[in-house]
Write a structure and sequence with these properties.
heterodimer, A: 437 residues, alpha+beta, Rossmann fold, Four Helix Bundle (Hemerythrin (Met), subunit A), 7-stranded mixed beta sheet, 6-stranded antiparallel beta sheet, 11 helices, 33% strand, globular, B: 384 residues, Phosphatase 2c, domain 1, 16 strands
């Protein structure tokens, strides 16, 4: 039985006239079980492989191998389908033309799916909107499937009219989750990130074909471990207060602010997708009306809910004080994740400026990124940044752009920009919740 | 068009919350923060008005707890308001009494205020089910520099109230003998309160608990008050000038007696220094006792300095009563309105407000009712 807990890290003390309350809420799920096994509905997996003409023989061979490895990871009983994507999407397995477009995994279907994958031939263009739309139709053909996850692999950029992909993303948002992987260096990080962010998945680069199999196995194992199909983060704020932002800040930075749906006039719900046994951190910032010194109030209630059941909650408080020793402190978690969020923005903006030829801006932003990565202890970002810039002074954030950069290193820095590191938790957080599902 | 008491933005008529800053709009705040933009009291919605029109309705669940003391919203099991988020005070920090029943003629509220960390005021009320028959309003204000004054004042208030549960002896005597009998009973109540206070601190304490004491007893047209320290009783008749019936035992009062104006004395550095109190180190235990005839409709108000600090003059206090009475002249609503007023002014001390509503008494035959504002006020009599 799954159990959620919520802990809050914040400095609740505000100075006289202070209005902005920041808190990090850590939500931890345990006992999640296996996807589709909780009895609340079945799980469905769709593997989408780019089979356009751009896929070279080595990449295609690796992609087939990886897709077969992923199929091998799908737990028996899970509904699944294989889609071959080019300028249109083809249902490669199961080979049906009507009725349910997915089948349950067993020894026979696993074997048949592998054989179907082995017959992939690269030809045609790249129209990702059709891939997403077909995946959506396949999921909807099996009403039992309530936990929907897809893996999308491509090696190139989308070749469609400007809005085609965005509209397909919008149709899929909230319906299925999608992890995206780009093979080689001819695909667009921003494009796949748009898909993966909207569809609550991850994006990463697979620079060389020999890494593909391991990545697909990882993705599928992660997905199979998500026994909680769909949970919603809820944030209540008092009447008259303004929610400045709600961000997931660990394991990666995702701004959820604009994804609010009203639960009631004072409570917003934010999608978090499926959960495995894991912890995620959320940064919530609320602006409240200042109260008199000595007054205490609740600035936010942060809850995790499945359906209408609230499983855990953390209370974000505000207490006005004239003791500057109390009010001047910034909570270590808040400071850490504020830095990590800026780090992600600096990397993305720096690389965008570099691509646009604006070297001055790129140097400044990537320099700031180097400084933030060092000060927040994000070693992965530091090592990836060092492949793109020459660091003169890490603490000052002074860097020079490297003249020759491996494109894959730059893309790896970009895809990893939103990944964050944790710091050691403070002692004695207030913990609440822990209801079973 | 009025203006927000917090940010000064223009408000739509009757708005319960400011659209600009979200501040709740309450009773008139005189002299408090934002006083410059506060419209006259007559134009203001009283606090309970805003409760009724608040947007809470759609999300308020019946949690079985008292509504939020700040906004009237529903309160969650963790003691935070579901509407405005205000932390709800503990029962000691905010309590209400309606001894004559809900919506009855006697009501009081005792509250921590804003600045102090705990509520050292205490209150105990009695009220007959029949309106106007008999009410007892006891208010104690624990001295914050002493030990455990919050426990002492609570114990003292209860003890005094118990001592006054029986009516004054009516007897056959003269007005003077009846007054003497009432004075004796009130002196007993003071001793009971004092004993209860003493019981909360050990004999050897260097800083024993202490408290002020004020009581008002309404028996029909008869109002008897007694006090030690600077908690007060006012008689505020409808449509006529009110009077402060108690005389403070304070440095400010001594200065006023020596010719200083009320305003100067009560705002001076020693304004809150009291010269008499209850407790192990009390100088003496003789209350000042005064009587009045209350034969016209009006309010008997007993309060701690947490209220009168912001409206000491009887007329100023009456104006706040009237402002709080706009939506409903319900005693509890008015008590809460006065509390909101004192908090709006800064709430720098604990606040206690106890009210008894006197309606027009049936004039006994052969005797004309006393004209409004001309109550027969017997001179305050000090017992020795």
């Amino acid at each position: 039985m799954a159990e959620f807990t919520a802990s809050v890290y914040q400095n609740e003390f505000l100075p006289d006239g202070g209005t902005d309350v920041n808190a990090i809420v850590t939500i931890t799920c345990s006992g999640a079980g296996t996807a589709g096994q909780s009895g609340a509905g079945a799980a469905g997996e769709i593997i989408i492989v780019d089979t356009s003409g751009s896929m070279g023989p080595a990449t295609m061979a690796a992609a087939k191998d990886a897709a077969q490895a992923a199929v091998a990871e799908i737990v028996d009983g899970t509904w699944f389908a294989i889609v071959a994507g080019s300028d249109r999407a083809m249902l490669a397995y199961p080979q049906v033309s009507s009725g349910p477009g997915m089948v349950r995994m067993d020894d026979r279907t696993r074997q048949e799916a592998s054989e179907a994958i082995s017959r992939f031939v690269g030809s045609g263009g790249t129209a990702m909107s059709t891939w997403l739309d077909l995946a959506g139709r396949l999921f909807s053909s099996v009403p039992d499937v309530t936990q929907r996850h897809a893996i999308l692999l491509t090696d190139g950029e989308n070749r469609e009219g400007a809005n085609m992909l965005d509209e397909a993303i919008a149709r899929a948002t909230g319906y299925f989750q999608c992890d995206c992987r780009g093979a080689g260096t001819d695909w667009q990080v921003a494009e796949l990130r748009r898909i993966s962010q909207a569809l609550l998945g991850t994006v990463d680069i697979i620079p060389s074909p020999d890494q593909m199999r391991a990545q697909f196995q990882d993705m599928m194992r992660s997905s199979m471990a998500r026994g909680i199909a769909d949970a919603q983060l809820r944030v209540w704020a008092p009447q008259g207060a303004q929610i400045l932002f709600v961000r997931q800040v660990s394991p990666s930075v995702e701004d959820l602010t604009a994804r609010r749906v009203a639960v009631n006039p004072l409570t917003g719900g934010y999608p978090t997708g499926a959960w495995a046994d894991e912890s995620r951190d959320y940064h919530v910032a609320v602006r409240v009306a200042a109260k008199a010194i000595g007054q205490e109030q609740l600035a936010a209630r942060v809850q995790i809910a499945i359906g209408d059941d609230v499983l855990a909650q953390a209370l974000v408080k505000a207490t006005w004080s004239n003791n500057s020793e109390l009010t001047a402190k910034i909570d270590a978690q808040v400071a850490h994740y504020t830095g990590q969020t800026e780090l992600a923005a600096m990397i993305q903006e720096g690389l965008a400026a570099k691509a646009a030829g604006d070297e001055a801006t790129a140097t400044t932003k990537l320099g700031r990124a180097v400084q933030l990565a060092a000060s927040t202890g994000n070693d992965e970002a530091t090592s990836k940044l060092r492949k793109v810039v020459e660091v003169e002074n890490e603490r000052e954030g002074t860097v020079r752009l490297k003249r020759t950069v491996d494109k894959a290193d730059e893309m790896a820095l970009d895809t990893a920009s939103t990944k964050t590191t944790r710091i050691k938790k403070q002692t004695d957080p207030s913990t609440a919740g822990g209801t079973t599902t | 068009m009025s203006a927000c008491t917090a940010c000064g933005a223009a408000l739509d008529g009757g708005a319960a919350f400011c659209e600009a800053c979200g501040a709740r709009q309450g009773a008139a705040v005189a002299g408090g923060p934002g006083a410059a933009v506060t419209p006259p009291v007559s134009e203001e919605a009283a606090p309970f008005d805003s409760v009724r029109v608040s947007a809470a309705a759609e999300i308020v669940a019946d949690s079985g707890r008292r509504p939020c003391v700040e906004c009237g919203g529903a309160v969650d099991d963790d003691a935070y308001c579901q509407l405005c988020g205000a932390k709800q005070p503990s029962e000691r920090d905010h309590y209400r009494q309606e001894p004559a029943g809900e919506g009855g003629w006697v009501a009081g509220v005792c509250d921590r205020g804003i600045v102090h960390h705990r509520n050292e005021d205490a209150m105990a009320l009695l009220g007959s089910p029949t309106s106007g028959e008999r009410a007892v309003l006891v208010v104690l204000d624990g001295v914050s520099s002493a030990e455990d004054s919050h426990l002492a004042s609570e114990a003292g208030a209860r003890a005094a109230c118990e001592a006054l549960r029986a009516p004054f002896p009516q007897g056959m005597g003269t007005a003077e003998s009846r007054h003497a009998a009432a004075t004796a009973l009130l002196a007993q109540a003071v001793r009971a309160a004092n004993d209860a206070i003493d019981a909360t601190t050990p004999e050897e304490s260097a800083n024993p608990a202490s408290a002020t004491f004020a009581v008002a007893v309404v028996e029909g047209e008869r109002l008897v008050v007694a006090n030690i320290g600077d908690s007060r009783v006012y008689w505020l008749p409808d449509g006529a000038d009110g009077v402060q019936l108690t005389v403070d035992d304070s440095v400010a009062q001594m200065q006023m007696a020596a010719g200083a104006t009320r305003e100067a004395a009560e705002s001076g550095p020693q304004a809150h220094a009291i010269t008499r109190w209850l407790g192990r180190d009390a100088p003496d235990l003789a209350p000042r006792v005064a009587e009045a005839t209350v034969s016209v409709p009006g309010w008997v108000l007993a309060c701690s300095d947490g209220l009168w600090n912001y409206a000491s003059d009887p007329q100023a206090l009456r104006a706040q009563v009237d402002a709080a009475a706009v939506p409903t002249p319900d005693p509890m609503a008015i008590a809460l309105g006065l509390l909101a007023f004192a908090k709006g002014c800064g709430g720098r001390d604990n606040i206690t407000v106890a009210l008894a509503r006197v309606e027009r008494a049936e004039a006994p035959s052969g005797r004309a009712p006393t004209p409004p504002g001309q109550n027969a006020l017997i001179d305050p009599t000090e017992e020795t």
